[in-house]
């Protein structure tokens, strides 16, 4: 009788362990599946569209989820923004991302589009660690000032202010120092000095780091 009871207990213990293992594997599988699904409904996208490519690619789906999280954080920061521009800008970004169908390397285009948008939102709405502001006086004139804040985004970004205008710039490959490029502005810093171009075809300014 004792042997029979022990056998039943052992069988029950084995069954319990088996059930626990099944639950664990199921949970892991469900989590993996969730991570592979983007923030939008893949059943409603057009076949062959950029959204369809995102749905089929785990890495792009993860980037889409990352962006959705960052966008949600930005919306919270922008709730009192006047005029409210964030939602319109996001719709514009979606249209821009979808233009990747024209690219020879669609995957790389989509990936870069997500990465730069995430970094842009993180910098604009101060969602990551930052360094600064740092002050530069340009062309020997203390009043000709460029104020720079650096953000620990991926890729790295900065927001520069000059006069009454602002520019978001992304880090670029460079042989020395750190080079950043915006829409029509650039900043190339090296050992406390920065070469700054502010505006389309504007002359280059030589700017020195100022301690305040």
UniProtKB/TrEMBL annotation:
Alphabetical list of Pfam families matching this protein: LprI, MliC
All copies of domain C-type lysozyme inhibitor, residue ranges: 136-204
Cross-referenced InterPro entries: LprI-like_N (IPR009739), Lysozyme_Inhibitor_LprI (IPR052755), MliC (IPR018660), MliC_sf (IPR036328)
Protein's UniProt name: DUF1311 domain-containing protein
Residue ranges occupied by any Lysozyme inhibitor LprI-like N-terminal domain in the UniProt entry: 50-121
PANTHER family: LIPOPROTEIN LPRI (PTHR37549)
Record key words, sorted: Lipoprotein, Membrane, Palmitate, Signal
Gene3D superfamilies noted in UniProt: 1.20.1270.180, 2.40.128.200
GO-annotated cellular components: extracellular region
Cleaved signal peptide residues: 1-34
């Amino acid at each position: 009788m004792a042997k029979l009871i022990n056998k039943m207990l052992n069988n029950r213990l084995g069954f319990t362990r088996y059930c626990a293992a099944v639950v664990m594997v199921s949970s892991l599988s469900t989590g993996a599946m969730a991570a592979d699904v983007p923030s939008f409904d893949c059943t409603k996208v057009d076949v062959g569209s950029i959204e369809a490519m995102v749905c089929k690619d785990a890495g792009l789906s993860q980037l889409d989820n990352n962006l959705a999280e960052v966008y949600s954080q930005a919306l919270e920061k922008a709730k009192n923004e006047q005029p409210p521009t964030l939602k319109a800008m996001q719709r514009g970004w979606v249209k821009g991302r979808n233009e990747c169908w024209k690219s020879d390397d669609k995957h790389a285009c989509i990936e870069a589009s997500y990465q730069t948008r995430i970094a842009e939102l993180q910098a604009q709405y101060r969602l990551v660690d930052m360094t600064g502001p740092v002050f530069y006086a340009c062309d020997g004139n203390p009043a000709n000032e460029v104020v720079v804040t650096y953000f620990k985004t991926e890729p790295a970004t900065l927001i520069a202010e000059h006069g009454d205008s602002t520019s978001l710039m992304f880090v670029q490959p460079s042989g020395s120092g750190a080079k950043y490029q915006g829409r029509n502005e650039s900043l190339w810093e090296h050992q406390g000095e920065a070469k700054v171009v502010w505006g389309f075809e504007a002359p280059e300014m030589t700017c020195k780091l100022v301690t305040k």
